[in-house]
Design brief:
- The protein is built from no helices and nine strands.
- It has about 130 residues and is mostly beta strands.
- Strand 4 and strand 5 form a beta hairpin.
Length: about 130
């Protein structure tokens, strides 16, 4: 979510980390280390809306026709990527504007079983939006 800079002070791409599935089961007090997987072709800048706020990896959907995908959210965009067999981000499939939602601070994203995404905002009483991209 924050800008990373290289040795020449240029902004670097957003990074993708993976948390092992076993981290979501078992003891609440267990410690797991997120593993750096890859980077995205998204370079946060000082421009509003350019920072990644959340991402979600999908399981194959109920219809069996879709490979897992990675949905990445910024404050004003939703980007959907293919994933490689190793779970890394692949090609950009779609990019959708979220500006029409007029959210105060769009933050969260999750996949629904039917292939839509659920979008949330970080403000009291904010609505949830279910959407497809594209």
């Amino acid at each position: 979510k924050r800008r990373l800079r290289d040795a020449n002070k240029r902004n670097r791409p957003s990074l993708v980390y993976r948390v092992p599935a076993r981290a979501w089961r078992g003891s609440v007090n267990a410690i797991f280390v997120a593993e750096l997987v890859d980077s995205l072709p998204i370079i946060p800048t000082d421009k509003p809306g350019s920072m990644v706020t959340d991402a979600a990896y999908s399981a194959p959907f109920a219809d069996g026709g879709n490979e897992p995908r990675l949905a990445v959210r910024t404050y004003d965009r939703l980007l959907v990527f293919t994933t490689t067999s190793a779970g890394r981000p692949g090609a950009l499939l779609a990019e959708c504007s979220l500006k029409s939602l007029d959210e105060k601070q769009g933050e969260g994203i999750a996949w629904l079983p039917d292939g839509r995404v659920l979008l949330s905002s970080e403000s009291r009483g904010a609505p949830l939006y279910a959407a497809r991209c594209p």
